[in-house]
């Protein structure tokens, strides 16, 4: 695949539909996890211009910052803390339309207003990391994001 993405205009769903095959091609044959996470974060950031896109990886009893695109971020998050730690603990995706209303939200940036976090799981269901995406807009994420992001994390 070429190093450039073809970015669609139109609806969010149209953009995800166009991104998926490009991302599959980009990741095909690459076995290095960090490289694949880095390219996935960059592709999502470039396609949607999200405020922050990145991965946190499980290391012991913490999530540790992995590849990301956007402003500097929190480096370590304990299990059950904030949106990312809660998604890890519950092993389920979380859609947060207003981060200020989420109990225990960790404010890495005051500009973040809404968030979606999806756990990355091994075949046995254990969580090995999370995909975290933040927006500067309230209520930015919905079921369309959840549906397509679930497909994207299956590629990892």
Explained architecture:
This protein has 156 residues and is an alpha+beta fold. The chain has one domain (12-154): GAF domain (Beta-Lactamase), CATH 3.30.450.40. 34% of the residues lie in helices and 25% in strands. It has four helices and six strands, in the order ααβββαβββα. It has helices spanning 12-27, 33-48, 82-90, 143-154; strands at 52-59, 62-69, 76-78, 94-96, 114-121, 127-135. It has a six-stranded antiparallel sheet, with helices on both faces. A hairpin with a 6-residue loop joins strand 2 (62-69) and strand 3 (76-78). Helix 1 runs parallel beside helix 4 (143-154). The longest helix is centred in the N-terminal third of the chain and has 16 residues, at 12-27. The protein is globular and about 40 Å long. The chain starts with 11 loop residues before the first helix and ends with a helix. The mean pLDDT is 93.
Structural class designation? alpha+beta
Physical arrangement of strands within the biggest beta sheet: 3-2-1-6-5-4
Largest sheet: 6 strands, antiparallel
The portion of residues assigned to helices is 25-40%
N→C terminal distance: 17 Å
What's the rounded overall pLDDT mean? Answer: 93
The CATH C-level class name: Alpha Beta
CATH fold call = Beta-Lactamase
> How many helical elements?
4
Strand content: 25-35%
Order of H and E elements: HHEEEHEEEH
């Amino acid at each position: 695949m070429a190093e450039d993405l073809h970015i669609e205009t139109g609806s969010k769903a149209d953009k995800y539909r166009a991104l998926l095959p490009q991302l599959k091609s980009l990741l095909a044959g690459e076995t290095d996890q960090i490289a694949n996470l880095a390219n996935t974060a960059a592709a999502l950031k470039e396609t949607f211009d999200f405020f922050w896109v990145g991965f946190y990886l499980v290391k012991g009893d913490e999530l540790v910052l992995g590849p990301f695109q956007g402003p500097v971020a929190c480096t370590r998050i304990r299990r059950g803390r904030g949106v990312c730690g809660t998604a890890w603990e519950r092993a389920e995706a979380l859609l947060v339309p207003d981060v200020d209303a989420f109990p225990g939200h960790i404010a890495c940036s005051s500009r973040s207003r809404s968030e979606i976090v999806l756990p990355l799981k091994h075949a046995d269901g254990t969580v090995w990391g999370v995909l975290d995406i933040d927006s500067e807009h309230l209520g930015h994420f919905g079921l369309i994001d959840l549906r397509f992001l679930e497909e994207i994390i299956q590629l990892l």
